[in-house]
């Protein structure tokens, strides 16, 4: 009898332990927790493989996992409108139905399988959501034409500068509810973990305030908005992270036009002043930039890698685009089939793995965490060198970037940097109490952790 009682007690202990472990895992799995350490990799499914399908991409996921990728963002998966479409394939941002899958990519069941496999590998999945507009022959143009903005002559209103799309009317209450139902559809049917909201600030902020809590009745989600919070501060109340468009444009102008570095640091101070209730996404390229404005190498030249280091280590969320691990040196077509030219050698994968793993593991690089302090550092070459240190308790990460087109000999002159660190790329140690001098070639960078 005593043996039976002991076995029963041990059994209860096992159940209790398992339940506690599950509860702990569920807590860490919430976006409010994992968003601070995640990174986002944008998947251009059309151009990722020759097949351009879910099944073909699924084979690439173990490689991306080993590179340190945490969140996969899929460009729109909905069917593409045929009326007034551009090119032979059309834009993925001109939907003809919000609750179907484009046959170009496969089936709904194929996507479900991909999401399940991605979750098994530890990824989060976010889906591109185009709420501002649809294509000209979207199903709603026939079933609910009142959902759309109209020109004085009664025709559908074209979106500014884009002839293949027409804009929705957010004063229409029923349209809003239909849009929310469509977003819920993807959460219920495929178990995605969030949305990247296209042109988020072109849609009234009160729609997002209405939509988020309603969609999240299904599960907590991560919300990335395509807007700059410096220009649209009200949207920061709704979204977990936003784009850093002003930084992207200013940094490109800085390099091409030889503008002063202090204009970049002044802008960083403006972003920091927003606070940690929301985060910024930092990037050197994405689908729009690559196709319309050129590759990251066209834009940043010799400082491309320092800019990538910045994007992975400054306060916020690193955002990568398909093919950066190659690196991809060509502009990808937007409306035609134009696959990335994979060659079996991922020259930049180790570089990104080092940065992404550091971002995920070092508490000093947590994004949007008020416990982390970020300090811009003084150097003897403040017109050429961007240096900063991020601290969270005993954890520190020091980043030093040559933002110029020439060699620079310089010294860090700042009391924030003390003690011994390890270079995360070459694994060498350095005691900064013994000196803070550097000699950088063009394109050089260094990242140290304590």
What does this structure look like?
This protein has two domains: 35-368, TIM Barrel; 385-449, Golgi alpha-mannosidase II (Immunoglobulin-like). Helix content is 34%, strand content 20%. The protein has 15 helices and 19 strands. The protein has helices at residues 2-28, 31-34, 45-48, 54-58, 61-66, 108-121, 139-143, 173-190, 205-215, 245-257, 261-273, 287-293, 296-300, 304-313, 349-361, and strands at 40-43, 71-74, 124-129, 133-135, 158-159, 162-167, 194-197, 222-228, 241-243, 279-282, 317-321, 373-376, 385-392, 395-402, 408-411, 420-423, 429-431, 437-440, 445-449. Helix 6 (108-121) links the parallel strand 2 and strand 3. The model is unreliable at 1-25 (pLDDT under 50). This is Alpha-amylase. Pfam families: Alpha-amylase, Malt_amylase_C. Keywords: Signal. InterPro entries: GH, GH13_cat_dom, Glyco_hydro_b, Malt_amylase-like_C.
The number of domains is 2
CATH secondary-structure class of the largest domain: Alpha Beta
End-to-end span in angstroms?
56 Å
The proportion of residues forming helix, as a percent range, comes to 25-40%
Treating each run of at least 4 consecutive H or I residues as one helix, how many helices?
15
Can you tell me the CATH architecture of the largest domain? Alpha-Beta Barrel
- Class computed from helices, strands and strand pairing: alpha/beta
Rg: 24 Å
Instruction: Write the CATH homologous superfamily of the largest domain.
Output: Glycosidases
Side by side, the strands of the main sheet go 1-2-3-7-8-9-10-11
Q: What's the average pLDDT?
A: 94
| Low-pLDDT windows of residues | 1-25
Shape: globular
Instruction: Describe the largest sheet.
Output: 8 strands, parallel, barrel
Number of strands: 19
Beta-strand residue percentage: 15-25%
The CATH topology annotation of the largest domain reads as TIM Barrel
């Amino acid at each position: 009898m005593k043996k039976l009682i002991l076995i029963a007690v041990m059994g209860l202990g096992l159940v209790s332990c398992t339940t506690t472990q599950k509860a702990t895992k569920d807590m860490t799995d919430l976006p409010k927790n994992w968003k601070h350490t995640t990174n986002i990799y944008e998947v251009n499914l059309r151009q990722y493989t020759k097949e351009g399908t879910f099944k073909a991409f699924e084979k690439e996921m173990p490689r991306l996992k080993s590179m340190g990728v945490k969140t996969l963002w899929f460009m729109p998966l909905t069917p593409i409108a045929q009326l007034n479409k551009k090119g032979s394939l059309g834009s993925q941002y001109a939907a003809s139905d919000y609750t179907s899958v484009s046959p170009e990519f496969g089936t709904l069941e194929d996507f479900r399988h991909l999401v399940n496999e991605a979750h098994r590998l530890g990824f989060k999945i976010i889906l591109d959501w185009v709420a501002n507009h649809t294509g000209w022959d979207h199903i709603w143009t026939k079933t609910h034409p009142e959902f759309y903005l109209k020109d004085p002559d009664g025709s559908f209103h074209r979106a500014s500068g884009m002839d293949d799309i027409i804009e929705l009317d957010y004063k229409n209450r029923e349209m809003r509810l239909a849009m929310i139902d469509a977003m819920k559809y993807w959460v219920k049917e495929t178990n995605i973990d969030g949305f990247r909201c296209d042109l988020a600030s072109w849609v009234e902020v009160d729609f997002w305030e209405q939509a988020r809590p309603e969609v999240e009745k299904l599960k907590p989600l991560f919300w990335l908005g395509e807007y700059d919070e410096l220009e649209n501060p009200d949207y920061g109340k709704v979204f977990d992270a936003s784009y850093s468009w002003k930084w992207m444009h200013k940094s490109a102008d800085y390099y091409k036009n030889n503008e002063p570095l202090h204009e970049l640091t002044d802008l960083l101070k403006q972003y920091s002043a927003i606070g940690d209730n929301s985060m910024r996404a930092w990037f050197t390229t994405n689908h729009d930039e690559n196709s319309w404005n050129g590759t990251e190498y066209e834009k940043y030249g010799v400082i491309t890698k320092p800019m990538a280091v910045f994007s992975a280590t400054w306060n916020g969320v690193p955002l990568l685009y398909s093919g950066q691990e190659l690196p991809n040196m060509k502009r990808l077509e937007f409306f035609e089939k134009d696959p990335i030219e994979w060659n079996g050698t991922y020259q930049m994968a180790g570089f990104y793995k080092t940065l992404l793993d550091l971002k995920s593991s070092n508490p000093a690089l947590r994004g949007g965490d008020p416990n982390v302090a970020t300090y811009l550092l003084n150097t003897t070459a403040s017109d050429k060198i961007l240096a900063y240190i991020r601290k969270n308790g005993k954890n520190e990460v020091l980043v030093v970037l040559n933002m110029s087109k020439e060699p620079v000999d310089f010294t860090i002159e700042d009391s924030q940097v003390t003690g011994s660190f390890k270079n995360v790329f070459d694994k060498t140690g350095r005691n900064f109490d013994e000196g803070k001098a550097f000699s950088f070639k063009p394109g050089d960078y260094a990242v140290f952790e304590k």
